[in-house]
Amino acid sequence: MVLVITDSINRDNMALYGYGRPTTPRLLAHKAQAGEQMAVLQNAWSVDASTLPALRNMFHFGLPESENPPHLLALARAAGYKVWWISNHDDLAIEQQHARLADVVDMVNRTPGRASASLDGEILDCVQEAFADTSTDRKLIVVHLMGAHPHYSLRFPENANPFDDDVDAVENGLVKDGRSAWVRRFRQEYDAALLYHDFVVSELLQQTRSAGKPGEDRAWMYLSDHGQEVGHGSDRAGHSPSTASGYRIPTVIWRNREPLPSVAAQQQPFRADWTGWALMDLLRIQWNGQMPERNVLDPSYRWQVPELPAIVESFG
Ligand SMILES: [Zn+2]
Prior knowledge:
This protein is of the alpha/beta class. It contains eight helices and eleven strands.
């Protein structure tokens, strides 16, 4: 099982979700190939606009304030999984709260803070090593990417911005909405970061799809910790607790066994603080804390509107 957590990706900028710039050609190719084995949750939301609370919610089943909250990695280990934490972040709090629970910790990037320029592709070799490990047949590989965290221009290789100076429908729409040249420029860099991100995420999916022996269960889940405002709802760029863009995330699930939610069911809203419930299903772990109504993969799943500090006109 591979869990890919990325940073600051707003699904509205992914061609996979209908965006006007070709930012996700590789994920679209996977989708065309994978068919019913790949579900793109169309209305996925984070309930936190920054990394630390988002990860805390994600790994504690949305119950971080409860007494002795369960932690997903501890449960996976108790069920016999060997757990990897492979990260392009250098964040002490994340290490202490989550990574320390893994058996193997690979912090690829040792430059503290998110102004660091280590590209996410640096983690791919470590993930390949985790796949090659023969000491266990139960693996949970957590990959923590920098995604499109500001500064956007640090998130893709030099000279790899095809949206530079593009006058396309996206650019014209931003002009029409009165967005400044400054924000339109950020949007181009953000979209270039998404294009590079598409490469890294697709490689991780490819590694998962081609790993293991025939007949072995494999699963892959990808989501962002929170969204990002880049001229979507206001003339600014960055983390955005007060606008819906700060919470609009992608969530994609692939698995080689058992049907995923139907195309109709993929329209149901999903909240990232309930990720743990779906992950336990993907890991095939039965436990006494199960709540099928919070597991987006379960037929009895039922959406509940989260309380956000932003005004959201519609969740889906
Ligand atoms: Zn973040």
